[in-house]
Design a protein that fits this description.
The protein is an alpha+beta fold and 122 residues long. Helices cover 45% and strands 18% of the residues. It has one domain: Conserved hypothetical protein from pyrococcus furiosus pfu- 392566-001, ParB domain.
Length: 122
């Protein structure tokens, strides 16, 4: 069975940083969240397996019955480029927080859990 090629942008879209900040500002003080976003902007992109990112986040795998996952699933089928997810390490809790891209990660897993995902991680 042929695997679906997943196209990725080199960097997240500019408009994804404000949504990542809004999420982070719920779990971090706004000043700290701003510093974290600044670090994410400067971070290099590194590749990790989709299933490893999901396992490290401890988030459940959503399937294509979720409308956001279905939308990203359809983008993959259409060959549209996806933005790299943004991740923040949380060493106190031994996990990774997905601050942007959770539904994209789940959509990728619907094709191939072992697929490499370019991520920005701090």
């Amino acid at each position: 069975m042929k695997k679906t090629a997943i196209a990725w942008r080199a960097e997240p879209k500019k408009e994804e940083y404000p949504s990542a900040y809004r999420f982070l500002s719920l779990i971090q003080r706004p000043k700290h969240a701003k510093r974290t976003i600044d670090r994410l902007r400067r971070a290099a992109v590194s590749e990790h397996k989709a299933i490893d990112v999901l396992r490290a986040s401890r988030e459940p795998l959503l399937d294509v019955t979720n409308s956001h996952v279905k939308e990203d699933h359809n983008k993959i089928v259409a060959g549209e480029k996806l933005s790299p997810p943004m991740l923040v390490r949380d060493p106190r809790n031994s996990r990774v927080i997905i601050v942007d891209g959770y539904h994209r990660i789940c959509a990728v897993c619907s094709f191939d859990e072992d697929a490499g995902i370019p991520c920005k991680i701090v």
